[in-house]
User: Fold this.
Amino acid sequence: MNILLNDEIISRENVMVDIEDRGYQFGDGIYEMIRIYDGLLFEWEAHLERLVRSAKELMIPLPKGMEVLQKNIHLLMKESGVLNGSVYIQITRGVSPRKHHFPENADPVLTAYVREMERPLEQIRNGIKAITTEDIRWLRVDIKSLNLLGNVLAKQKAVEQGASEAILVRGDIVTEASSSNVFAIRGQECFTHPTNQFILNGITRQVVVRLMESTNLTLVETPFTKEALMEMDEVFITNTGLEVCPVIEIDEQLIGDGMPGYYTTQLQKAFETLLLELIPQ
Ligand code: PDD
Assistant:
């Protein structure tokens, strides 16, 4: 596998991660995961914008190679031969003797690589089971930082209970899920948590919000409770890998009739149409 290290592409064996890289010691860094469909980067501009925002919020200077990032990612994709997969991009604050405060002379370190990935069609078609668990994460989860322990623990709990996602509840409010945004439909209203410091502003979320305009659904960006969630007709989650994925069961209770719902399916169709439009036939 080849890796982009700042502005150079080198083979994985030759990449050295310094023991005092702040990403490694403090989780002091940011990342993005971008989908590749048929050799095309999906929503590149939006991901780049979010990456730059995350860097700004954490006061991480943009690294060497940032201005030619898109070109280098395309080179990586070409070399890897991956047509359908994902790109992972990470920027850490850099290498410096371990002290909590920002180092004066560290250069940020950018790494990126490409992986092959199939669309998870089984989950997209049939839906997934989720659990709910307390949102124990910090109060700036709008920043896509490397600090993911709250997410990791939640996802692990879901897996141990035979589910594939953990819906996070702060107080009694549903925020998002361990690696996805949550939408819930009641009648013709589609509820989702507003974009503030309590959720990541998902790129797939943004796409789905746009696609919703072609349905009869009304978007309601307002906090809602776990109790309300359990009473919804339909629930679905969105992220870069799962796209629009129905949630058919939460905490062992069926949502609606336990099948992907009408509006969720409509949004999935709109997402498919968008992909077909993007990919030249
Ligand atoms: N995570 N919320 C959280 C906590 C996430 O980790 C993610 C995605 C999302 C959805 O964002 P997007 O639509 O931009 O993928 C929401 C990625 C996929 C990850 O960590 O691997």
